[in-house]
Amino acid sequence: MLGADVxxxxxxxxxxxxxxxxxxxxxxxxxxxxxxxxxxxxxxxxRSRLINVRSMEIYRQLGLAAEITAGAFAPxxxxxxxxxxxxxxxxxTAAMVGIDGPVSESPAVGVVTSQDRLEPVLLxxxxxxxxxxxxxxxxxxxxxxxxTLLVDHGNGAEVRVRARYVIAADGxxxxxxxxxxxxTAGPGSLGSFxxxxxxxxxxxxxxxxxxxxxxxxxxxxxxLYPEGGWAWFVPTPDDAGDADWSDAVTHALGPGAGVxxxxxxxxxxxxNAFVAEGFGPGxxxxxxxxxxxxxxxxxLGMNAGIADVHNLCWKLAGVLRGWAGPHLLDSYxxxxxxxxxxxxxxxxxxxxxxxxxxxxxxEHIAAGPAKAPAAVELPWSERYFAQLGLVLxxxxxxxxxxxxxxxxxxxxxxSDYVPSTEPGHRMPHFWLARDRSTLDAxxxxxxxxxxxxxxxxxxxxxxxxxxIEPLAAEHVEPCGIGxxxxxxxxxxxxxxxxxxxxxxDGAALRSALAAITGATDHGGRPL
Length: 527
Known about the structure:
- The protein is α/β, with parallel strands linked by helices.
- The protein contains 14 helices and 23 strands.
- It has helices at about 15-30, 55-60, 65-70, 115-125, 175-180, 205, 245-255, 300-320, 330-365, 380-385, 390, 455, 475, 510-515, and strands spanning about 5-15, 35, 50, 80-85, 90-95, 110, 130, 135-140, 145-150, 160-170, 185-200, 215, 220-225, 230-235, 260-275, 285, 290-295, 430-435, 435, 445-450, 465-470, 485-490, 495-500.
- The strands form 5 sheets. Strands 5-4-12-13-14-11-15-17 form an 8-stranded mixed β-sheet.
- The radius of gyration is 24 Å and the shape is globular.
- The relative contact order is 0.13.
């Protein structure tokens, strides 16, 4: 593929939440970024329903958390309810911890909202061009850049765009992944499903017992927006092409509901479960569903993709601006692919637990009303379903992390989150000032958190963007450092290095930055 009509530093393929978040992050770093989306507009379907606490920390960093929260449901909707039908009482319920209210481990609160409510906020969060109705047909990595062939479905015109790097956020059926010949591992398709978006007055059964999701024997019901609207998720029937969806929804609501359902739109889709065997060779990098497709139970998929690009974009910025070496990008797959595999395992475990709840209910009903209890005991703790261990407790191991000399072997995150400042972990949340968290100290720079800022400020750190942040005395011991120690926090909020005391080597901070970023001079020597 020869020549190019347009040049950009990063081309983002895909205009969903992951691609739009990447665009906003890269623009914040001053990177020239362009995006293309094969569909003609943002998706009108609700799709993903949950923005977890870690994603909201990222959106807080981008200044978007308040706007996203304003358009979302109130915290009391951060709950799941189990019913035989929507019109019958709960037989079990559980809170979505971190969604139903604040948790001490984070400055942010997750929300229940719909993807079609989130995407316009993300689109408006950056000025970089997004071309809708433009599809990638082919690409070629030419060593110093990638030349892509795009087609504009509006007029049929083809254009070549040359980019230094490409982020493929083009979904589970990713064209880019197929062009690269990257296989996937995992169960694959878990079946065909249908989402029916409809209007109906269901307040008499739901207003006093709000929830983000109602699991019933006749499908999953979810309120879409605070002002109204519902979605019904159900396995696609064999006669889907001839189905009367309004009648089907009314029947699914339960006997005697007597509520007409006005169907707005219907979407058929495949539920996939896989992890790509590589996140991309060279200058083309997969993110989101292109890299890992996760079943919807637990709301982990989109959030994992948001964490992907939060990990990736600072690394791309460093390479493009010269304060990081190209091998830093190798750490993207090293760090994020194990998380994707663990996320997939967790989603499968969540699905099994929900099926277990339904099975327990069937056994109660079969036992008859005299023996059946009114409620089903859930097979998990309230903290379990929050999965804060997976959401906040991810620990990276790569060349972009300088482990302590006595660092233990990496352990998989459980359902419980244990804050840690060991290198590789997300920096724990402590309040530095009113409404200002340790996580708010991170941005388009590295951060040194220390109780002794004057001494650490004397060290030369060019060419890396870096800020020194004072750490109050009460946070020193929980951070695992002494009165002159420090934490070096990467732009993605993960601890890159830790010093228990002031290092004897005056170049220690500079050496750590060079090691984490893989930066070298023109002779290939570490900076």
